[in-house]
């Protein structure tokens, strides 16, 4: 693990522990890289500041770990793009690939939903 990912590694370690569907044998490097990117973005763009470093929730920001809302990737992508209530929108600040990585981290890393989405999926939600 490269040093710049050390913060993400801590979050990812928690995520791995919480996600039985995630392979930890290194067989799928692409998935691990996507989750590491998503974890880094989650920690740095503001999600963790409101929802907690491991998505455990804090104050009015609901827990994202073990949250049934995350079953739908479209709902999670739309929430990040548009915000809602006290949550600001991130659609202008983040491109589709970055949002996809965050969606994948929240869904797989924090909730064990193994069906990953990509930037093209986010573009459709953004356009819709
Ligand atoms: C300023 C605080 C704040 C930030 C930053 C923030 N959120 Fe939220 N988020 C909230 C609040 C408050 C809610 C619940 C209010 C609502 O949805 O109307 C929420 C709701 C959500 C929900 C829906 C949960 C549910 O059960 O309905 C998801 C998913 C989510 N946030 C993900 C994220 C992600 C991913 C990021 C980073 C890109 C992020 N949030 C950044 C405060 C924040």
What order do the helices and strands come in, and which of them pair?
Layout: H1 6-18, H2 29-44, H3 47-51, H4 73-82, H5 96-111, H6 119-127
The protein binds heme C.
Heme C binds next to helix 3, helix 4 and helix 5.
Short descriptors:
single chain; 128 residues; mainly alpha; Cytochrome Bc1 Complex, Chain D, domain 2; 6 helices; 54% helix; globular; disordered N terminus; binds heme C
Instruction: Indicate the low-confidence ranges by residue numbers.
Output: 1-20
Instruction: Report the average pLDDT across residues.
Output: 87
Query: Given the helix and strand composition, which structural class is it?
Result: mainly alpha
- Give me the strand/helix succession: HHHHHH
Bin the strand percentage.
under 5%
In CATH terms, the superfamily is Cytochrome c-like domain
The hetero molecules present are: heme C
As for the number of domains, it is: 1
In angstroms, what separates the terminal alpha carbons? 38 Å
Task: Quickly name the level 1 CATH class.
Answer: Mainly Alpha
- Overall shape: globular
What is the alpha-carbon Rg in Å? 13 Å
Tell me the number of strands.
0
Q: Can you name the CATH architecture?
A: Orthogonal Bundle
Largest sheet: none
The CATH topology assignment is Cytochrome Bc1 Complex, Chain D, domain 2
Helix content: 40-55%
- Tally of contiguous helical segments: 6
